[in-house]
Amino acid sequence: MSKIKVVENILHTNDEITSQNKRLLNEKGIYVINMMSSPGSGKTSLLERVILKLKDNVRIAVIEGDLYTTKDAERIEAQGVPVVQINTGGACHLDGKMIKGALDSLNLDNVDLLVIENVGNLVCPAAFELGEDIKITVLSTPEGNDKPLKYPRMFENSGAVILNKLDLLEFTNFNKVEFYQDINSLNAHAIIFETSCVREQDQGVEELCTWIRQQINNK
Amino acid sequence: MSKIKVVENILHTNDEITSQNKRLLNEKGIYVINMMSSPGSGKTSLLERVILKLKDNVRIAVIEGDLYTTKDAERIEAQGVPVVQINTGGACHLDGKMIKGALDSLNLDNVDLLVIENVGNLVCPAAFELGEDIKITVLSTPEGNDKPLKYPRMFENSGAVILNKLDLLEFTNFNKVEFYQDINSLNAHAIIFETSCVREQDQGVEELCTWIRQQINNK
User: Fold this and answer.
1) Contact with chain A for residue B152, Cβ under 8 A
2) Per residue in B28-73, pLDDT tens?
3) What is the pLDDT of residues B164-185, one digit of tens each?
4) Comparing C-alpha atoms, which of B134, B97, B108 is closest to residue B27?
5) A67 interaction partners in chain B (CB closer than 8 Å)
6) Could you tell me which residues come within 8 angstroms of residue B119 by beta carbon, excluding any fewer than 6 positions away?
7) Measured between alpha carbons, how far is B111 from B62 in angstroms, rounded to an integer?
C-alpha cells in the first residue's frame, strides 16, 4: 500500500463527514468561516475585535483548533460567545471528524455565524475541507510579502485574504505592491482586507465586519 | 490498516534512511543544523547573516526546503556557498529521503557545516529526524510569546532556540520573561539566543556564530 493511497483514503473519509456537517450547517442557515494562517499572524486578536463589533446583532459561535492548549479558547470565551476547543493532540490541522464532535456540543439553533479558527499552519489545513462557506487566510506584515507564492495553496483556495498587523508595516520590508500582484496572480477573485488590532485603535476591522454581515445576509 | 500504523511505517522508513545519512555525515565530520520555524520568522535572513560572518573560516553548504519555489535558495546562493533546493511539492516537512537526494548532489568532502532550512511550519517538521546534530527553532517576536507552549514539540526537541526580530519587540506585546519561563519549563537544556537582522546592523548574530564555531570544533 503506497503512501499516496492512504492519504486519499483519509481525505475521502474526511469529505464524507464534512458533507454531513455542511448539510447540517446549511439546514440551520449558519454562515461558516474557516480562518487559517501561520502561528502568530494574529487570528485570535482579529477574531476578538470582530466579535466585539458583531456580537450585539449577530449570534456568533467559535470552534478553536489548537494542538494542546486552551489559550485561544479562553480569550474568545472572555468575549461572551459560545466556544468549543478542539485539541488535535499534536496533529497539524482540523478535519471533518473533529468538527462533527464540536458541532455536537454547540446549540446550532442559536447561531448565525460560526468561525472555525484552524491550527496555526500555512501548509496542511489548506488540504482539509471543514464544511465552511469561505476560507479566509490571514497574513501579517512581519511574515513577509513572499509568503503567498511560497505557500500558494492556502491563498488560492481562500475567498478572502486579510493582511494583518498593518501597524508593523513601516518597520518591515513588506512590499504591498508585490503582495497585491501575487494574490491577484494566484486568486484574482479573493477580496483583500488590511487590518490592525493594536490595543488603542483598530484599523480595517469595521470594513471586514461590514463584509461579513453581507455574507451572512446573502446566505 | 489504521492511520496510526501507516504513520509508524513512514517514520520507520524515514529513520532508516536518516541513519544512513547520519553515518555518511559523521564520516565526513560535518556538523549539521536542522533549522525550523513558522513561515516568516526570518530563518533565511538569519542564515544570510551567519554565512556572511562564518564563510571565510568555515566551509558551509545549505539545503533549502520549500514547497514549490527557489526564492530562499536564490538568496543563499547569492552568499557564495553551495546550496541545494528541495521542493516538497506541497508536503509540509523535509524527510530523510529528500535529504539523501540533496546530499548526493553536494561535494561533502568540502563541507564543515551543513545547514538544513526546513519548510516553514511550526508543527510537522518536529516529527522527522533528518540526521542533524542539532535542531534549532527560530521564533520571532511578532509571533507572540505564547507559541512555545502552543507548539511544544519543536521547542522540546531543540538544542537551541533563537528569538529573532528583536528590533520589533518594542512594537509588540511579546513578554520575554514568560518566554524564558516557558522555554525553561519545556526544555531546560536549550541555549537561547536573541537576534535581529535589520539591514543597518544586526544583533546577537556574532554570539550565535561563536557558539556555532564551538559546536563545529567539538564534533
Assistant:
1) yes
2) 999 999 999 999 999 999 999 999 999 999 999 999 999 999 999 9
3) 999 999 999 999 999 999 999 9
4) B108
5) 123, 150-152
6) A123, B65, B66, B67, B88, B91, B92, B93, B94, B125
7) 10
Show residues of chain A in contact with B145, CB under 8 Å. none
Chain B: nearest CA to A139, how far in angstroms?
Answer: 10
Kindly report the pTM of this predicted structure: 0.93
Residue whose C-alpha cell is 535542531: B135
> CA-CA-CA-CA torsion for B34, A179, B71, B196, nearest 10 degrees?
-50
- The CATH homologous superfamily for domain B3-218 is P-loop containing nucleotide triphosphate hydrolases (3.40.50.300)
A82: region left, alpha or beta (phi > 0 left; psi from -120 to 50 alpha): beta
Contacting residues for A164 by C-beta, under 8 A, at least 6 apart: A41, A42, A46, A138, A139, A140, A141, A195, A196, A197
Closest CA to B45 of B37, B213, B108, B94: B37
- Residue ranges of domains in chain B: 3-218
